[in-house]
Amino acid sequence: MIEKTVAELSAALASGEFSSVELTQAYLDHIERHNATLNAYITVCAESALAQARAADAARAAGANNPLLGIPIAHKDIFCTEGVLTTCGSKMLHNFVSPYNATVIEKFNAAGAVMLGKTNMDEFAMGSSNETSYYGPVRNPWDLERVPGGSSGGSAAAVAADLCAMATGTDTGGSIRQPAAFSGITGLKPSYGRVSRWGMIAFASSLDQAGTLSKSAEDSALMLNVMAGLDMKDSTSADKPVDDYAATLNDSLQGLRIGIPRQHFAEGLSPEVEKAVRAALGEYEKLGATLKEIDLPNNHLSVSAYYVVAPAEASANLSRFDGVRYGYRCADPVNLEDMYKRSRSEGFGDEVKRRIMIGTYALSAGFYDAYYRKAQRIRRLIKDDFSRAFQEVDVVIGPTSPHTAFKLGAKTDPVAMYLEDIYTIAVNLAGLPGISIPVGTAAGLPVGMQLVGPDFAEAKLLNIAHQFQCHTDWHRQKPGALGKEA
Amino acid sequence: MALDKSEVAKIAHLARLHISETEADEVTNRITDILALIDQMQSVDTDGVDPLAHPLDVVQRLRPDVVTETDERERLQTLAPASQDGLYLVPQVIE
After folding, report:
1. Looking at this predicted complex, what is its ipTM?
2. What is the pairing mode between strands A166-171 and A209-214?
3. Which residues of A touch B54 (CB under 8 A)?
4. Residue A466 distance to chain B (closest CA, Å)
5. List of chain A residues whose C-beta atoms are within 8 Å of the C-beta of residue B33
6. pTM listed for this prediction
7. Which of B18, B42, B90 sits opposite A324 (nearest CB)?
8. Do B41 and A326 touch (CB under 8 A)?
9. Selected residues 143-202 of chain A with any CB under 8 Å from a CB in chain B
10. Known active-site residue A76
């Protein structure tokens, strides 16, 4: 039963085929068997999960029947969870038991979802391979020698290997879409502001957005129905009506205009990835869509602008970790400055420290115009590129990543790792919604395709992704590495 | 733009980070590489382009000026590495 989609599980629970307690126990057993290999979870909440499952079964017996009632979920360890360790993948928060719940957590709790645990991630969401985690790397269930992508690598591996039915993630520069692509699952980054950031540990506040990792676009729609909406606790959450994302999944794609950005099919793209994406575009033509080549002329500047904006915001956000109020404090500080410096140097890993220093430099006196202001101007050019494209097309489609999952330890140079996100970063800079869906395999590894829509067009994106999944079965492919192990 | 070790030490101090002598070369080289990536921004003329600070062109919402938070000092201070009498303790600052 654990391999089923949320939609299927929901129907099975409603018909009484099995209970949420049985389902939750099945996932806990599977986690027990495989988490030591995958390292997808930092914390497993077996006892509280079974209590939530019992409550869900009781609520169902009393007549409740919402889609996520009793469905087991894993949350990225960036979301604050009351009474549960919340590490953000960092030694800095290795002892932080959150005193409150993030809004996203409150919403899933209210919907009756069952929290199995907290998933591994790159430290403070800074990474594209899940290798910067203080808790060690996550392994890709398709090939245990490879990374699952990052930063939401634990969530992606957990969904792919059936260690949960669905998972939350966050995406600042590709951290949902790239691990979804590498792990052969569906990953949605909603528009900036669609989902509350309250209680989500901040990395880059003008880019961070919570989203979904799931086994299908339909599941993603069911999750977004719960997550989306205005939150007065987040001053940047959008005051826009929330669609019923499941209602329009079956709309026809006849006449859909798809934009193919030349810059996403340029040098550096693996031929096997291109082949799978082009084949998927052919499927859309069969469904009545038309393809048109478009240009995103400033895309090549997105990584450089991002590595000013994101570190600058991170350097400010991470200044709160000072060893005073919570989290890690160094042993025997000789004075206050020593306490700050050693707590931060011992508590943060190398990549986090690098980004804090880049951000500090970019914001320091005399450099603001050359770096931060310049990056913001490029951000405008990138947003304008997309706005121009959306005058001609309804959706922009290309590969999620230039290649399939790479080997653990293969990318030790930070700049090479940053360039991993060449197709995803511009979408965050522009604040647009994007989704990655599996569209094939290359040498036994999944290939992801990215669909980008205009602001707040999540319903349309999910419709387009769902229609592909109705006519193909790439999203039903399962990783084999754990089977071979067992 | 290449940085030297003394500039990196200054940035580290501003960020309240300690970079040891053994790490200094490695950190300086990595940061120099990243700044080279960032400097690709200078290849485009952005004169007259309006900076985009935030993806949503919205103004900050206002809410009624009423107290909504409750006092949770004791509960929150249980998370502190050191506290006493409702205060956070740090190494002595004034002799």
Report:
1. 0.95
2. antiparallel
3. 206, 236, 431
4. 27
5. 413-415
6. 0.97
7. B90
8. no
9. 191-193
10. yes
Asked if B1 contacts B41 with a C-beta cutoff of 8 angstroms, the reply is: no
Which site among A96, A309, A335, A353 would you substitute to test the B interface, given the most B Cβ atoms closer than 10 Å to its Cβ?
A353
Is the pLDDT at B26 greater than 70? The verdict is yes
Residue type present at position A454: P
Query: How far apart are alpha carbons B56 and A238 in whole angstroms?
Result: 8
Q: Are A91 and A124 in contact (CB under 8 A)?
A: no
pLDDT score of B94: 79
- What integer pLDDT is reported at residue B30 of this predicted model? 95
Give me the residues paired with residue A169 across strands.
Answer: A211
In the CATH scheme, what is the code of domain A6-256+459-485?
3.90.1300.10
Read off the pLDDT band of B1 (50, 70, 90): low
Candidates A303, A326, A378; nearest CB to B46:
A378
Ranges of residues in chain A with a pLDDT under 50 are: 484-486
Q: What pLDDT was estimated at residue A44?
A: 98
Domain boundaries, chain A: 6-256+459-485, 300-375
Q: What are phi and psi of A178, to 5 degrees?
A: -70, -45
Reading the block at residue A132, the tokens are: 């910067």
